[in-house]
């Protein structure tokens, strides 16, 4: 039975950044007719069997419009409700309240005053992609001007202690497809990196990785807590990427949970991962 699938991008990157190239033939092998389309292109998304957010990296300045579009697409993966929750990093506070080991996070809404950590720290907008708007500050440094600029743009700001392990070991990204662990890859430090030619995200140094057991255990806890908050089953998530760093005590901490449009590291893992993704798409349609 032939089905149609659309991988969703943006005008600046109409066919993504290349990471999903292996996904197209895998989907084709499982009976899908596959195409790319920018989310705001006017394509006929409503008639597609599966519409997958893959490179919608221009949504942040237009989040309300983007969420309205998500609500209009019947077969969107991940769902519009998941996207609404996940595109505001305030979800980190919810996961903290649920007992998940998260990088300490404080939210500062426009008009509120901030207390900056005594160690190096990061200030970033609660709505953003590709580390845009994120800035690192030294212990004791005044970040008020950056905070004010985020507030002036209407953003709630997140303040987090900088995890120095990122400088030496970077981040670990654990990828789940259909709620089941698939693969992992390592990410170098992004703050201070150069912007990609598209202007949508910072360039990253990526490499294959084998996650240690404590990182996998944390990722499992993260997915269980997130799906409990959302009131869904893990299997209802077509994809999830759990970004993990090491705290000062060496224990793993959640940095971000990417459920909207993350790169999934298909170029950094075994070729069969693309087929696992395609199989997970079929699972969503049963």
Automatic annotation (TrEMBL):
Protein name per the record: ATP-grasp domain-containing protein
Keywords assigned: ATP-binding, Nucleotide-binding
Keyword ATP-binding: yes
Organism expressing this protein natively: Amycolatopsis nalaikhensis
Nucleotide-binding in keyword set: yes
Origin: domain of life: Bacteria
Domain ATP-grasp: 92-286
